[in-house]
Amino acid sequence: MTRAEELSHLPTAAFAEQPDGSFRASGLTRGPWHPDHQHAGPPTALVMRAIERVAAEMELDHIGRLTANLLRPVPIADLSVSVTTEYAGRNAAHLAAVLISGGKEIARFTALAQRAATLEMPSGLPGHPLPRAPASFADSPAVRFPFLLDSIGYPDLVETRVAAGDFFRGPCASWFRMRHPLVEGEAPSAYQRVAVAADSGNGISAILDFKRYTFVNFDLTINLLRRPRGESICIDAQTLVGPDGGGLSESRIYDEDGLIGRGTQSLLIRLRD
């Protein structure tokens, strides 16, 4: 099917919930590395959704950390998510989750859920007021990801605008705004929007030739110092590579009100066959 034909039948969401509680992935989740594999952002956001719901039952309304251990490529197929509580106290809980497809564990997650509280901070603290993104969403030019030009995928799920630098040419800051829901019939939360975007740090800040190298991440950690707000999330990323086939992508994460946290990804770097 050509891209024009796919666009005429564009899915309405990244996932559709099934009667058995699983989630059927659409082509909007397709990533850059293989036509049958998802970008890790949407399934990570799907797990974030499940974790938020468990946390809300404990009246914990802030997800301070989410770590994804990506065990296998995530197929564009039916996925199921299970969440367990490892510890729950008055103000915080440690949660674990598993993403399953075809009877196999695809990824494991841990998360820290916290109870938010309004506190007035002293003035003049180092690093405060918290910094803002290099440019606002409105002032950043729209740029499409330079992959999946002939088929639908992640670049159709999110609108991207470059706030600083250039895609795939070193340090880069990009805004992400979802064009479609994560789950059909639902408005994604701000936490889910962060998860959809945060896994793109190693892509927007790539320093190696995409045609010659793969630089896949096998994990993702998101730390958030406050609750995110709004529809637009900015990832300001830098990639560093080592001499032994490893690398690290580091990101500052912003919403329109300023810094909300950081993301890190461990990279496996290889020459393409």
Descriptive overview:
The protein has one domain: Porin, CATH 2.40.160.210. It is 15% helix and 39% strand. It is built from 5 helices and 13 strands. Helix 2 runs antiparallel to helix 4. The protein starts with a helix and ends with a strand. The model has no long low-confidence stretch (mean pLDDT 95).
Count of DSSP-assigned helices: 5
Assembly state: single chain
Biggest sheet details: 13 strands, antiparallel
**Helical residues, percent:** 10-25%
Derived structural class? mainly beta
In CATH, what is the homologous superfamily?
Answer: Acyl-CoA thioesterase, double hotdog domain
The average pLDDT score comes to 95
Our count of domains comes out at 1
How would the global form be characterised?
globular
User: Which runs of at least 5 residues are low in confidence (pLDDT < 50)?
Assistant: none
Number of strands: 13
CATH architecture: Beta Barrel
Query: Which series of helices and strands comes N to C?
Result: HEEHEEEEHEEHHEEEEE
Alpha-carbon distance between the two ends: 26 Å
CATH T-level fold name? Porin
Relative strand content? 35-45%
Outline the secondary-structure elements:
Blueprint: H1 3-8, E1 15-17, E2 23-25, H2 41-57, E3 62-70, E4 78-88, E5 92-101, E6 104-114, H3 154-157, E7 158-164, E8 172-178, H4 190-198, H5 201-204, E9 213-217, E10 219-224, E11 232-241, E12 246-255, E13 258-271
Helix pairs in contact: 2-4
